[in-house]
Amino acid sequence: MKRLILMRHAKSDWKTGQEDHDRPLNARGRRAATVLGDWLRQNGQLPDAVLSSSAMRTRETLDRLQIKAQATFDPTLYLADSSVLESVLKGATGERVLMLGHNPGIGDFAAELMERPVDHPRFHAYPTGATLIADFDIDHWPELHLGTGRLVDFIVPRDLTD
After folding, report:
1. Does 134 score more than 70 pLDDT?
2. Hey, how many other C-beta atoms are within 10 angstroms of the C-beta on 21?
């Protein structure tokens, strides 16, 4: 059994004038990432490996999650489409992997992974901070097939702060 935690980075700051890759989180994003990290810990969902885009906003999201797992910052995950996300995930070695990325690829990938549609009003928008937790009945990540994920949980930061 393998578990994937698929997270879109928290809300970034468009006002900094930085290049897209170098944009940091805004205040709301920093708060959301901290809350998401607390939620992962409270629910026993900490990963043992992290695959993240190399962008500043994904790095800062991971930092705010306060996760102690081994992280790989892969430049191919920056604005990656679902096929790239799938390919990178198939190279993972952890039992419980957190993948941090960007829309639209991460939202598309989440939908393609699941065996059943996720019943949440925000799932198809996959807003910043959206986090899917899914299980796969496989022994090794290269065995992953789309449409086989079983929902464990799906949350957006607003669900945790309202």
Report:
1. yes
2. 14
CA separation (Å) from 83 to 68, 145, 146, 153? 28, 12, 10, 23
Residue in the block written with tokens 């925000």: 122
- What confidence category does residue 162 fall into, taking pLDDT thresholds of 50, 70 and 90? low
Measure the CA–CA gap between 24 and 58, rounded to whole angstroms.
Answer: 9
Cis peptide bond N-terminal to 47, omega within 30 = no
Looking at residue 154, its amino acid is F
d(CA 91, CA 106): 17
Contact call for residues 31 and 37 (beta carbons, < 8 A): no
Tell me the whole-structure pTM to 2 decimals.
Answer: 0.95
Output helix, strand, coil percentages for the chain, rounded to the nearest 5.
Answer: 35, 25, 40
